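tl;dr need the bound structure. longer version: we got a ligand (pantoate) that a collaborator sent over and nobodys looked at where it sits. i said id run it. heres the input, straight from their email, havent touched it
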Amino acid sequence: VSLTVIRSAEEFRLHCRSLAERGPLGFVPTMGALHSGHVALMRYASQQTRSVAVSIFVNPTQFGPTEDLARYPRTLEADCAACEDAGVELVFAPDAAQMYPAGDQTRVRAGALATGLCGASRPHHFEGVCTVVAKLFALAGPCLAVFGRKDYQQWKVVQRLARDLFLPVQVHGHPIVREPDGLAMSSRNRYLSEEQRGQALGLIAGLRQANRRFQHGERQVEELVRACRERVEDHGLRIDYVELVDAEELQPLSQVTDSGGLLAVAAFAGSTRLIDNCVLGQEAP
Ligand code: PAF
């Protein structure tokens, strides 16, 4: 199969419709700068479906005014090669005017799932994500969409979006893909200097430390959070948040049970904001 790259929203809709006639369609929405984590999502999608479409769009509405929209890496040629290697049939790479044509004014607001964690420090982020994902899902039509669980909150928010708006999309979360030393793969890792790359290991060190304490019986939220924070800070990262929340509704936990909870971290290495998470007791980070 050869790869088709299209720019127009209407053409994307028509291509998805014709792919879906041949069997189940997989869809991986991305902002490009693809890495092995994305490739794992594509491969997972292609195991579950007949054909896979990928969107590559750096969505302006999900970036805050002081964030990295302008410097976000754009590597379309390499991205298309990676898609082709992974057996993807269709790439949708629109420009901003395709996704937000003149007169566009509708925004999709998420609920309580989006208010804590990253939603607290990035106030309009999930509205931007929900808006663009709703547009992409409307164009793709019935499909199985795959999201990475590094952005755990995004995965949950998008799952709820599809459910609440009766969109014909099944939303699957793929486990975090890590570098050999444990750093979660992210397009933003390429901003890191050598020193910051070392600091970034504080995320996984913090998660592992808290997970060890959990395995050894610690159930106090403050203790688990403190254990994580300590490691993150030891590595020279500046913490945005470390929180332990219930893994479904993402609300703060006062008590951890044996079924665990989501431990989520966001921290800055220099000006680069990195996130990572693990579900305590369910997976070794
Ligand atoms: O995770 C991402 O790359 C983006 O937030 C998404 C889901 C493609 C929406 O722009």
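gonna send this back to them w/ a short note. Residues 29-31, 59, 62, 129, 132-133, 151, 154 surround pantoate (CB under 6 Å).
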